[in-house]
Amino acid sequence: MVNPWYFNIDLRILQDFSVYAFGKKNTLQLSIDILNVPNLISSSWGVRKVASAAATSPLRLTGFDSDGEPIFEFTGVKETFVDDPSLFSRWQMQVGLRYLFN
Length: 102
Fold this sequence. Notes:
Layout: E1 11-21, E2 24-35, H1 37-41, E3 49-51, H2 53-56, E4 59-64, E5 70-74, E6 81-83, E7 92-100
Antiparallel strand pairs: 1-2, 2-7, 3-6, 4-5
């Protein structure tokens, strides 16, 4: 079973600041990363779909016949794929700070 197509759009904003220290001009970088930007805009966008448990196991053992052969029942599924509640389906933000010695 192949999961539906999924895309992820990330955004990085980076700003350099000049800092004079130790008699030299150094750089301080501030960065903000937003992961899964579509999900930040709308909660229904950027959501990953995965196969539901019922879709991966559509047979249920109901018992055995007189010869000892198993009897299975096919349980059809309403939804083959369900929303993934993991971090892959949620927007995240991280802030970074870096000091560069020149």
